[in-house]
């Protein structure tokens, strides 16, 4: 490239062309802008700058653009202005990156010190008896242990004595606070409530109850599964068992309630006293009264209650470790065995499911003895595979 300011032709170097092109394309770095400023200090380069723009951008700059000191000063001011803007942008960019880095460092510090990290959850074995407090904390109950029972605030409300929890009526509690006791398959447990009511929980059952009953309120507990209730008499405070969609109301009596989730019927068998059964959308006056020696069954599908005289011992034998089946379908027997022994049992032969059987087993013998007894007495065979029992 040539220019003709003094009648000569001077070639523009590649570096000069690159410097000017990057500047005009706003791609020049700060150091390259400094170089351009120094380069334009030489008046001889003004023509090169002008000719390059004219040749490459079709812009015809005034011939005297660089002939005066004023023009030079304007160009240099323009470059300096852009340099300041460039520095400012780079400063803000640096601030942005620094802030991002500090943020990441802060997050790392917070997580390292566990401020946002939840405490690792302790995995509770599925075969453990557990006690859930009002605040949601869960404690594992050692069946052979002896310890104090504390509430969510650390106050003593009772004690564990082996296979029983005993709550203290003298506990300084003025409002309803509930505990929830969960008994897994294969185990049983006992609870003595603050009013003296004794509850014997069968395998696979959950009971929610007040740590202490409050004067003026009904005594109400919530059961899923099976339990035997020996209710302490209190003529001024009725005792209500909420079992799924059924309420069982008493003042003081002994009865068994079976309300497992997978069963359509909720059964109440009365040993002594009297109880009233009614749906939780009804009242006692709309319910059914049961006499001792009778069983009341509430069918959830039909919303209907029936009563019949029964052998009470068949329904309460589980408390002493016995298993008694009377004219019971095999599918119902299997469900009871699964709960008592915490084993999966699958009936392969569909024809056997509704066939009824009679059997009595004392002192909870090993499961294989029960299965072998059914094989000898009824010709029912079984196989064991992958921790499950298959009845053929």
Task: Provide a descriptive summary of the structure in words.
With 392 residues, the protein is an alpha+beta fold. It has helices at 14-24, 30-40, 44-57, 69-112, 312-316, 330-341, 367-378, and strands at residues 129-132, 138-141, 146-150, 156-161, 164-167, 178-183, 189-192, 198-201, 205-210, 219-230, 239-243, 246-250, 254-259, 265-272, 275-279, 288-290, 294-299, 304-309, 323-329, 344-347, 356-361, 382-385, 388-391. A hairpin with a 5-residue loop joins strand 13 (254-259) and strand 14 (265-272). It is elongated.
Number of strands: 23
The class by helix and strand makeup works out as: alpha+beta
The oligomeric status of these chains comes to: single chain
Radius of gyration: 44 Å
Shape: elongated
Terminal CA distance? 100 Å
Q: What is the share of helical residues?
A: 25-40%
Order of helices and strands: HHHHEEEEEEEEEEEEEEEEEEHEHEEHEE
Number of helices: 7
| Arithmetic mean of pLDDT | 82
User: Roughly what fraction of the amino acids lie in strands?
Assistant: 25-35%
Main beta sheet: 18 strands, mixed
Q: Give the low-confidence spans.
A: 1-11, 58-68
Main attributes of the structure:
392 residues; alpha+beta; 18-stranded mixed β-sheet; three-stranded mixed β-sheet; 23 strands
Concise overview:
The chain has 392 residues and is an alpha+beta fold. The protein has helices at residues 14-24, 30-40, 44-57, 69-112, 312-316, 330-341, 367-378, and strands at residues 129-132, 138-141, 146-150, 156-161, 164-167, 178-183, 189-192, 198-201, 205-210, 219-230, 239-243, 246-250, 254-259, 265-272, 275-279, 288-290, 294-299, 304-309, 323-329, 344-347, 356-361, 382-385, 388-391. The protein is built from 7 helices and 23 strands.
């Amino acid at each position: 490239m040539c220019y003709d300011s003094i009648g000569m032709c001077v070639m523009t170097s590649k570096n000069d062309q690159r410097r000017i092109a990057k500047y005009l394309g706003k791609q020049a770095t700060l150091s390259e802008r400094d170089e351009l400023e120094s380069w334009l200090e030489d008046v001889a380069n003004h023509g090169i700058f002008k000719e390059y723009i004219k040749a490459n951008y079709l812009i015809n700059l005034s011939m005297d653009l660089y002939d005066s000191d004023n023009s030079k000063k304007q160009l240099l001011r323009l470059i300096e202005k852009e340099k300041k803007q460039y520095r400012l942008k780079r400063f803000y960019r640096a601030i942005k990156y620094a802030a991002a880095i500090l943020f990441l460092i802060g997050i790392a510090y917070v997580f390292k010190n566990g401020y946002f990290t939840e405490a690792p959850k302790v995995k509770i074995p599925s075969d453990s008896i557990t006690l859930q407090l009002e605040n949601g904390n869960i404690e594992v109950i050692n069946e052979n242990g002896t310890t104090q029972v504390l509430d969510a605030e650390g106050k003593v409300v009772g004690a564990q004595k082996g296979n029983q929890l005993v709550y203290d009526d003298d506990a300084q509690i003025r409002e309803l606070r509930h505990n929830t006791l969960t008994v897994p398959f294969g185990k049983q447990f006992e609870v003595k409530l603050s009013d003296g009511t004794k509850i014997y929980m069968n395998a696979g059952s959950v009971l929610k109850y007040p740590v202490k009953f409050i004067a003026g309120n009904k005594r109400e507990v919530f059961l899923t599964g099976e339990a035997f209730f020996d209710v302490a008499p209190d003529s001024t405070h009725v005792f209500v068992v909420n079992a799924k969609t059924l309420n069982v109301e008493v003042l003081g009596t002994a009865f068994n309630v079976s309300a497992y989730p997978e069963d359509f019927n909720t059964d109440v068998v009365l040993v002594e006293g009297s109880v009233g059964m009614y749906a939780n959308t009804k009242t006692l006056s709309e319910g059914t009264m049961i006499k001792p020696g009778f069983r009341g069954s509430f069918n959830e599908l039909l919303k209907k209650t029936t009563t019949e005289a029964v052998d009470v011992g068949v329904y309460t034998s589980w408390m002493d470790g016995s298993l008694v089946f009377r004219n019971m379908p095999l599918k119902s027997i299997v469900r009871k065995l699964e709960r008592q022994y915490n084993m999966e049992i699958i009936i392969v032969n569909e024809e056997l499911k509704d066939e009824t059987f009679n059997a009595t087993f004392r002192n909870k013998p090993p499961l294989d003895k029960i299965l072998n007894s059914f094989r000898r007495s009824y010709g029912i065979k079984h196989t064991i595979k992958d921790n499950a029992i298959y009845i053929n």
